Amino acid sequence: MISKHHASKASTLANRFPENPILTPSQVRPSREDMEVECILNPGVFSYAGKTWLLVRVAERPKQENDWISFPVLEDSEHLIVKRYRRDHPDLDLSDPRIIRVGSSFYLTTLSHLRLFCSSDGVHFNEPDDRPSIIFPHGVHETFGIEDCRVTTMGDQFLLTYTAVSENGVAVGCMRTTDWVHFERLGLIMPPHNKDCAIFGEPVNGLHHCLHRPSGIDLGGNFIWMAESPDLVHWGNHRCIARTRAGQWDEARVGAGAAPVKTSEGWLEIYHGADKHHRYCLGALLLDANQPYRVLARSRLPIMTPDMDYEQKGFFGNVVFTNGHIAEGDLLTMYYGASDTVICGATFSIREILDSLK
Question: How far apart are CA 142 and CA 304, in angstroms?
């Protein structure tokens, strides 16, 4: 049980862990000797066997050499290879720290996999010693990595929805497990371009629901959508439920966090929003209990902003981003990525979030 921490700053509803950041790249071993951990990001969160667990995105790349840029990809959908280019290569564009452009081809500077960490107190985490802790990308849809997993607990099973990246685009993959040792891969449940998929923890009116984010070009945008499914594999009846808002903190893109929390007033969803300067904050949506595609209320101001030094400086600065939390009564314990570099924690009062929406 995690006690409520005192707020590090009072500008929002977030009460940050005084121990933040609770996980840094230096605490995470690389998956192989010739790789280094560049950053750790955006964990899925769940309770299991009396502990708090994080499924962290670990972004790796080869150890860099002077005058060269190197990056990993999966060849033949399962064998990791390293591509190398001289930094003065005429077709090389390194203007975005996340993307490498070589002529008309695009690659990622890192390759991400998912890594398990567990904790008895919710603050101090380590890799488990009683089970495999790494979930590697696999298959033609994951050759550039797997990212930002949401974990939904549903009965005795856990559903993992994650971003699958390849040269064919960014899509939503899904797998499930009951013991965190054996995993059933369900393939892609949303085709490119789509991400930020969170499945509700229980059916509503006999159907499963999920939040997801397709991306429109020219027409449309980066909006939050909802879909329904009879079997957790085939999804339809898609509805757009939350759009970006011009001139506000979420004007450029919005996306779902973890599975929404069921409250007496409806489903409470924590979501991220970014402005035109790529500053990521967190807000809330209140969804109707029986018709969850109906948005009853939405944050006018963020419930959390990147105020701390570790949230403002890093691989990609000015970012707080969550896709995992645990709700216990009024206490919402949220784990989040800061500046695309480290993992942090914060607590919220669910009542205070609901009151802020009125």
Answer: 32
Q: Give me the pLDDT at residue 77, please.
A: 66
Buried b (16+ CB within 10 A) or exposed e, 153-192: bbeeebbbbbbbbbeeebbbbbbbbeebeeeeebebbbeb
Q: Which pair of structure tokens corresponds to residue 290?
A: 């029986």
pLDDT at 150: 98
- Give the per-residue pLDDT at 5: 41
Q: What is the pLDDT of residue 215?
A: 93
Distance CA 153, CA 178 (A): 10
CATH code assigned to 22-356: 2.115.10.20
pLDDT in tens, 254-275: 999 999 999 999 999 999 999 9
Q: What is the pLDDT of residue 7?
A: 37
- What is the Cα–Cα distance from 274 to 206, expressed in whole angstroms? 34
Q: What is the pTM of this model?
A: 0.93
Residue 141 to residues 46, 76, 325: CA-CA distances in angstroms? 26, 11, 27
Q: Which residues of the chain have pLDDT under 70?
A: 1-11, 77
What's the pLDDT tens digit per position in 295-320?
Answer: 999 999 999 999 999 999 998 899 99
| CB-CB contact of 173 with 197 (8 Å) | no
Supply angle C-alpha 303, 40, 9, rounded to 5.
30
CB burial of 278-308 (b: ≥16 within 10 Å; e: otherwise) equals ebbbbbbbbbeeeebbebebbbeebbbbbbb
